[in-house]
Design goal:
Shape: globular
Radius of gyration: 22 Å
Number of strands: 13
Helix content: 25-40%
Strand order of the largest sheet: 3-2-1-4-5-6-7
Strand content: 15-25%
Number of domains: 2
CATH superfamily of the largest domain: Glycogen Phosphorylase B
Largest sheet: 7 strands, parallel
Number of helices: 14
CATH topology of the largest domain: Rossmann fold
Order of helices and strands: EHEHEHHEEHHEHEEHEHEHEHEEHHH
Distance between the termini: 33 Å
Structural class: alpha/beta
CATH class of the largest domain: Alpha Beta
Length: 385
C-alpha cells in the first residue's frame, strides 16, 4: 500500500498549522530589544494578529506593521505614544478586555502586562518574559524613590504599585509555559510568580552587526532607552570625570535629566536607524552598560561588531560578557568604578575576532529553531492532556 502522507523530502506542517494565533506585546512605540523578538515571531507566525496596549504607527518595523495590529482602549487617550506610561493604572483593565475567544495559541512577549491577557480554556498560552513588571517589583525605587517623587506623590504611588504587584503575581497562572530571556529573569520569575521558566536568550542579527576593520575607535557608547533603572547617569558622570567622549543613542523620559548632568564631551544622538547604529558600534571604544539588565541585546550587538563591553557585574549582562575576555564586569554601580574600567581600556585590550565569535551563539536561526521546538513540545503536551 502506498503511503498517502508526506514523503521525507516534503516539509511537514508545523504543529500550529490551522491554529488561530495571537501575538501579544506590551506596546509598540519603537524598535528596542523586545520589538526585535516580536519581529522574528511575526515572521514565524505570518497570519497572527498582534495585540498591544499602544501602537505608534510607523515606529516599528514593516515586518510587524504588516500584521493586523489591534490596540487597546489606551490608544484613544490623549497622546498615547508619548504618555502611555502615565496610564499604567489602566493596564490591568484594558489588557483583560482583549477578545481572545477565537484564538487557539497565544504567544505573549511581556515585561509589563502582556502576559496577563485572558485566553479561553482551550487555548495554549506561551509567554516569552523579558521581565516581571519592573515598576512594581525590584525597580520600584529607580522609578519612584525619594529622588524621583515627593512625599505626597509617593503616598499615592506606593499603594497603587503594591496593588499592581499583587495583580501581576495573581495573573501569572494565565500562562501555560514561561520562557525567560536570561537565567537572571528565570530567577525573578521563580521568585515573584512561583513558576518555572526555560531560558532562551533573545536573537541578535549577527549577520547585520559585523565588524569593520577600517573603523578606528572614537568614543565610548551607550545604547539604551533613557529610563531610570538603566542608571545612565553613572556613564555620564564617568565620562565627565575622565573628560572622554561619550555618545548616547536612545530616547526616553529620563532624557532631560541626563542632559542636565552631561558635560561637554557627552553627545545625545536620539533614536537612529540600524545602519547608523552599526556605525556607532564599529567606532566605539566600548559599550557602557551601567545598570542591571534583564538580558541586554545591545552588548551582544556591540560584541558582534567586534567591540568590547563594560558592564555591571549583575543581571543578564553576565550571561553575554566574559570578564577580561570580551569586556570588563564592574563590581559597583558607581561613576568611580566605571571610570576606572574605562581608563584601563587600551586599544589592543581585546581581540575583535574573539568578540565577534562570542556573539554568534545568539543568532536568530538559533533562537528560531529553539522557539519552534518549544512551541511544538508545548502543543503536543497540551493535546495529550
Amino acid at each position: 500500500m502506498i503511503d498517502a502522507g508526506l514523503s521525507d523530502a516534503e516539509p511537514r506542517p508545523e504543529p500550529w498549522a490551522g491554529l488561530r494565533v495571537a501575538l501579544v506585546h506590551d506596546w509598540l512605540t519603537g524598535m528596542r530589544g523586545g520589538e526585535k523578538v516580536l519581529e522574528l515571531l511575526c515572521g514565524m507566525f505570518p497570519s497572527a494578529d498582534v495585540l498591544t496596549l499602544v501602537h505608534a504607527k510607523g515606529q516599528v518595523s514593516p515586518a510587524i506593521e504588516s500584521h493586523r495590529v489591534r490596540a487597546s482602549a489606551v490608544q484613544w487617550l490623549p497622546r498615547p505614544a508619548r504618555y502611555y506610561r502615565h496610564y499604567l493604572p489602566l493596564f490591568p483593565t484594558v489588557i483583560e478586555c482583549f477578545d481572545l475567544d477565537d484564538v487557539d495559541l497565544v504567544i505573549s512577549t511581556s515585561h509589563c502586562a502582556a502576559k496577563s491577557v485572558v485566553p479561553t480554556g482551550r487555548a495554549v498560552h506561551i509567554c516569552y518574559c523579558h521581565s516581571p513588571m519592573l515598576y512594581a517589583w525590584d525597580q520600584y525605587d529607580a522609578y519612584f524613590g525619594p529622588d524621583r517623587l515627593g512625599p505626597a506623590a509617593r503616598l499615592v504611588v506606593r499603594p497603587m504599585m503594591a496593588w499592581l504587584a499583587r495583580w501581576d503575581r495573581d495573573t501569572a497562572d494565565r500562562v501555560d509555559r514561561y520562557l525567560a530571556n536570561s537565567a537572571h529573569v528565570r530567577g525573578r520569575i521563580a521568585s515573584y510568580y512561583r513558576r518555572h521558566a526555560d531560558v532562551l536568550h533573545p536573537p541578535v542579527d549577527v549577520d547585520f552587526f559585523t565588524p569593520d576593520s577600517g573603523a578606528a575607535p572614537e568614543a565610548f557608547l551607550v545604547v539604551s532607552a533613557l529610563v531610570p533603572y538603566k542608571r545612565l547617569e553613572i556613564a555620564v558622570e564617568a565620562a565627565n570625570r575622565l573628560r572622554v567622549p561619550l555618545r548616547i543613542v536612545g530616547s526616553g523620559p529620563d532624557e532631560s535629566r541626563l542632559k542636565a548632568l552631561a558635560g561637554p564631551t557627552v553627545v545625545f544622538l536620539g533614536t537612529i536607524n540600524d545602519v547608523r547604529l552599526r556605525d556607532e558600534y564599529r567606532r566605539a571604544r566600548a559599550l557602557i552598560l551601567p545598570g542591571e539588565e534583564d538580558f541586554g541585546i545591545a552588548p551582544v550587538e556591540a560584541l558582534s561588531c567586534g567591540r568590547p563591553v563594560i558592564a555591571l557585574r549583575k543581571g543578564g549582562a553576565t550571561e553575554s560578557v566574559v570578564d577580561g575576555v570580551t569586556g570588563y564586569l564592574v563590581d559597583q554601580p558607581t561613576a568611580d568604578a566605571f571610570a576606572s574600567a574605562m581608563e584601563n581600556l587600551l586599544p589592543d585590550s581585546f581581540d575583535s575576532l574573539r568578540l565577534r565569535q562570542s556573539a554568534e551563539a545568539f543568532s536568530p536561526s538559533r533562537f528560531e529553531a529553539s522557539f519552534r521546538a518549544i512551541v511544538t513540545d508545548t502543543l503536543v503536551s497540551a493535546r495529550r492532556c
